[in-house]
Write a structure and sequence with these properties.
By secondary structure, the chain is mainly alpha-helical. It folds into two domains: 82 residues, no CATH class; 34 residues. Helix content is 50%, strand content 11%. The protein has a two-stranded antiparallel sheet with strand order 1-2. The chain is flat.
Length: 125
């Protein structure tokens, strides 16, 4: 139950200790189960709720240290992947300089084709 505000006001010693903890987690590949837990809250959309989940937008809250851990990992990994052109095409969208445009255009084209030809369409994720 550590908040962003708490992390923001850590002193240099506590910051260093937190960084050491995160490095040890990386090195040992041992991550706390509590960090992996998430809480999903349904946030009502701007129209009437009527007890329908489809009238909500889910928001997932993660532990702050876990989010920091993942961001550190992502930042380091993405710079390596981008520098060496490891990912291409639609897989590149998550890296800096990447875009989701191509996969979205492809999906829109598939949907448009199914509508025009009156064909059934199943999209699984």
């Amino acid at each position: 139950m550590i908040t962003y505000e708490m992390l923001k006001h850590l002193g240099p010693t506590a910051n260093t200790l937190l960084l050491i903890l995160i490095y040890k987690c990386f090195a040992s590949a041992d991550i706390s189960d509590l960090w992996r837990q998430a809480m999903v809250f349904p946030i009502p959309k701007p129209h009437e709720w009527r007890c329908q989940l489809q009238n909500t937008r889910p928001i997932t809250l993660l532990e702050v240290i876990w989010k920091s851990f993942v961001k550190l990992f992502y930042n380091r990994l993405s710079s390596i992947l981008a520098a060496h052109n490891v990912l291409t095409g639609g897989n590149f969208a998550g890296l800096s300089g990447g875009t989701c445009r191509d996969p979205i255009i492809t999906l829109e084209s598939i949907i448009h084709d199914a509508n025009c030809t009156k064909s059934p369409l199943w999209i699984l994720s």
